[in-house]
Design a protein that fits this description.
Elements (H helix, E strand, L loop, with lengths): L18 E5 L3 H7 L4 H22 L3 E8 L7 H24 L2 E6 L7 H14 L5 E9 L1 H15 L8 H4 L13 E4 L18 E4 L9 H12 L9 H6 L2
Parallel strand pairs: 1-2, 1-5, 2-4, 3-4, 5-6
The chain binds 3-methylbut-3-enyl trihydrogen diphosphate (2 copies) and magnesium ion.
The site of one 3-methylbut-3-enyl trihydrogen diphosphate has 11 residues, from strand 2.
């Protein structure tokens, strides 16, 4: 069962994390440092996404989840928000066929109702087109918030169990927006801040956290390898002792 919490059994730590989730931060500062407008950083950031998707395919990562726009990012100046929306549209127009040709499935996760209906249609078409692809699932979190996710899942869970007043984690999990994926093994945040910023609150419970000062537009396949190497050097205990983990009990 894919929605079963990954914290209930001692899982094998695979050489490569199955699921990598990234907060792509630092686009604005990357641009400002070069005396460029913030938008230049976002444009460059899209290129970095392309490189990391390719690197994940080559390394055998099965799920890559990217935080592209948070539910709080609407607070930014209107021009920046509208530019980010335009970039999203252009990226979909340019990349979806290539992703499909490379056996990559695309999912867009978040409260999509706030987006322009045309963008919503493009997203639905892209998801439909790539639905059967198996090599890598790329989830783009857009107008996503971890609290939103938990609340929308809670509402659905309650509606699904009329009259029930006691609930379990197993009843909630299938309603979370990313119930199709295992929980992230490795979480990466670029740009130097060490916070979650309302990303996958539920699903990150036992993920390994990795923070780097590298700004997102500079994040390369080598940067990904450094994060994976850090992950591989850790012992995931899920509440147990190191001895138990070594003996797999
Ligand atoms: C991340 O980079 C991209 C989005 C949040 C859309 P920022 O735009 O947050 O860049 P900084 O943090 O201001 O440098
Ligand atoms: C988090 O970055 C959201 C995305 C990368 C999409 P922010 O730049 O919005 O986060 P804060 O505001 O610094 O916490
Ligand atoms: Mg930021």
């Amino acid at each position: 069962m894919i929605f079963k919490s990954s914290t209930t059994a001692v899982p094998d730590v695979p050489a490569v994390p199955r699921h990598v989730a990234i907060i792509m931060d630092g686009n604005g500062r990357w641009a400002t440092k070069r005396l460029l407008p913030r938008v230049a950083g976002h444009v460059k950031g899209v290129e970095a996404v392309r490189g990391v998707v390719e690197a994940c395919v080559l390394r055998g990562v099965e799920y890559l989840t990217l935080f592209a726009f948070s539910s709080e990012n609407w607070r930014r100046p209107a021009e920046e928000v509208s530019l980010l929306m335009r970039l999203f549209v252009t990226a979909l127009e340019r990349e979806v066929s290539k992703m499909h040709a490379n056996d990559i499935r695309l999912k867009v996760v978040g409260d999509l109702s706030r987006f322009d209906p045309k963008l919503q249609d493009m997203i639905a078409n892209a998801e439909r087109k790539t639905a059967g692809n198996k090599r890598l699932t790329v989830s783009v979190c857009a107008n996503y918030g971890g609290r939103w996710d938990i609340m929308q899942a809670t509402s659905k869970m309650i509606a699904n169990h009329p009259g029930v007043t006691e609930f379990t984690e197993e009843m909630l999990a299938p309603h979370l927006a990313m119930a199709y994926a295992p929980e992230p093994d490795l979480f990466i945040r670029t740009g130097g801040e060490e916070r979650i910023s309302n990303f996958l609150l539920w699903q990150l419970a036992y993920s390994e956290l990795y923070f780097t000062d590298t700004y997102w537009p500079d994040f390369s396949a080598d940067s990904l390898d450094a994060a994976i190497a850090s992950y591989q050097a850790r012992e995931r205990r899920f509440g147990r002792t190191g001895e138990q983990v070594a003996n797999k009990t």
